[in-house]
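User: Can you predict the 3D structure for this chain?
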Amino acid sequence: MSFSIERDTDRTGKTTYLLLGGTFDRAAHRDLKRALRDAFARTRQGRVVLDVAGVGEISSECVEVLLTGYTTALRGGYGFEVTNARGSVQLLLEATRLCPRREDDTLYAPAWLSGSPADVS
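Assistant: Here is the predicted structure, written as structure tokens:
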């Protein structure tokens, strides 16, 4: 396993924290899905906070799980927050709006050398 998921709950049981670390590749999405499902089951109409400070890479399958978790939170009346994203993980989560954008509000796109992607070989 190249990833880790640690769970903690506050004393009131209203907030469940998931501390994620490592590389969340395609194979990690099942464990992430299970961890989110368990977090919602343990949280009594409170919130789930995912700390992704230790995540170096995240696959599209895992991002899909996070988006599903966000939808579950909206439907169930839970709070849902993704915090401490950095680097490429932050850029990806900003694009999906799971993570707030930086204050400079800059979008990142490839800079094509010849003016269009079709010109690059």
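The chain has one domain: 3-101. The chain is about 35% helix and 30% strand.
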